[in-house]
Amino acid sequence: MWVKLCGIRDVETARLAAECGADAIGLNFFARSPRYVAPEMARQIVEVLPPSVEAIGLFVNADVEQIESISASCGLTTIQLHGDEPPAFVASLKERLPAARVMRAFRVGEEGCGEVAEYLASCGRLGAIPWRCLIDARVSGSYGGTGATAPWEIVALEYRSGEWPPLVLAGGLEAENVAAAIERVKPWGVDVSSGIESSPGVKNPERMRAFVRGAKRAIG
Question: Catalytic residue among 6, 20, 74, 133, which?
């Protein structure tokens, strides 16, 4: 099970994520988030990561030039789009950064995965299918990191794993429920932020360790 710990903001926590066995960390460049990390610090974080841990840049409604600049500065090869970016933006990003992988985040609620289907169909017509899709909980007025749980039953029923990019499940995950989420939804990977924190933006070492341990031991 691929595990990403998102919202890493300092070198010490990045080292701990690697020690815990995380496969990736998320660097949040959305300035309004309590998990925001400045590009200068992000660059220092990337420099201490072992080859086994990938740094993924999270952007919310940034322009292509900003993404390109930060990615080049920090040595990022995977971009997570977590805002309102349309399929045409994914196509533009792939054209500008052909070597980069794009993980597109979707916020899903009780209405189901219809929006995901439409979005991916448009991406297909543009030749810009994302590398991975991340499913988060839909919370009005928020782009993520709320701790709200995504609708597992709906995602399990409606996500077309055979047709769509591999699924990364997020939204309300923590050490206590990640095994159950993996068993029910059977995602390719899991992503956590608030579920490993003592307070918004402050990671808790014990919760980090417990989450990775629980995810790695789960049977999907």
Answer: 6
